[in-house]
Amino acid sequence: MSHTPTPRLILETLLPHLKVAAAYAHQIQTQIATRPEKEGYDNFFATALSDADLSIQTFVEVLLLGYFPNIRFYGEEHEQTYNTKYFRSIELGPPDDYLVTLDPIDGTRFYLDGHTNYQIILSVLNRDEFEAVLAISPGQNIYYYGLRGQGTFQGTLADTLEACHPLKLAPSGETIVLGWGMETLAEPLRPKYRVIDVANSYSREQEIPGFSSILQGEVVGSVNRAGQFIDSAALAFLAQEAGCIVTTLDGNPPPPLYTCHHYRRGGLVTAVSESVHQDILRAIQMTQLTSQK
């Protein structure tokens, strides 16, 4: 394999194997064993850990070291896997020296509770911005991929990259999803929108829309306290390539990746239209003013 693979080549090479990982995750979901929760997080979504997280990450590490031995790689479970030490680096590099990132099970809490809205997310990062993102939803038999400046595409797990079709957003309803720590925005948004704040709306029995639901047209906007490179920032990239507006909490463009710390951008707003975007920004301003009184 090439020592300097293109982002598309990375996706094309890994996709067949990631479909196997998706089938594995789907197959064992009802029997899945939890692991001791991760420490150092302030919400119960971030602390969740399963056998599937560790197994899929190990699987992808083996694939990357076999196909692209010189690639940079950062996986969510890098502290617990055996292969981190074999990668050249886990950090962002200079321009065009790509960093591959992985969230082996995005939405582990959803996964453990038997819901379908979990994903395997693999990304290719350049020094300044995402170059490509692949998000597979095993429980829903769909996947999305986006390439920088080329749009976002959707297909079933039976489709190759070439068979996928451009994603055309067709939002229905007026639902906004608020990530953990964004609950104070619910009150100013509720007169106009159905608001789901995951901290208070999550149920083990009833599946709620997640951030990726914006790609399916179920959600018109979302707010995240932090845009983690491996998940929420990656999904925001897919949404942006599909035509959504993505900004920081104060309405500015997201900062270049190399200016960020701890593998995350700051808070992110994602909206399907300018009107939704402005409504969210106004709610943020209102809550900030209230908190200052």
UniProtKB/TrEMBL annotation:
<feature type="binding site">
    <location>
        <position position="103"/>
    </location>
    <ligand>
        <name>Mg(2+)</name>
    </ligand>
</feature>
<feature type="binding site">
    <location>
        <position position="106"/>
    </location>
    <ligand>
        <name>Mg(2+)</name>
    </ligand>
</feature>
<protein>
    <submittedName>
        <fullName>Inositol monophosphatase family protein</fullName>
    </submittedName>
</protein>
<keyword id="KW-0479">Metal-binding</keyword>
<feature type="binding site">
    <location>
        <position position="105"/>
    </location>
    <ligand>
        <name>Mg(2+)</name>
    </ligand>
</feature>
<dbReference type="GO" id="GO:0046872">
    <property type="term" value="F:metal ion binding"/>
</dbReference>
<keyword id="KW-0460">Magnesium</keyword>
<dbReference type="InterPro" id="IPR000760">
    <property type="entry name" value="Inositol_monophosphatase-like"/>
</dbReference>
<dbReference type="Pfam" id="PF00459">
    <property type="entry name" value="Inositol_P"/>
</dbReference>
<feature type="binding site">
    <location>
        <position position="76"/>
    </location>
    <ligand>
        <name>Mg(2+)</name>
    </ligand>
</feature>
<feature type="binding site">
    <location>
        <position position="231"/>
    </location>
    <ligand>
        <name>Mg(2+)</name>
    </ligand>
</feature>
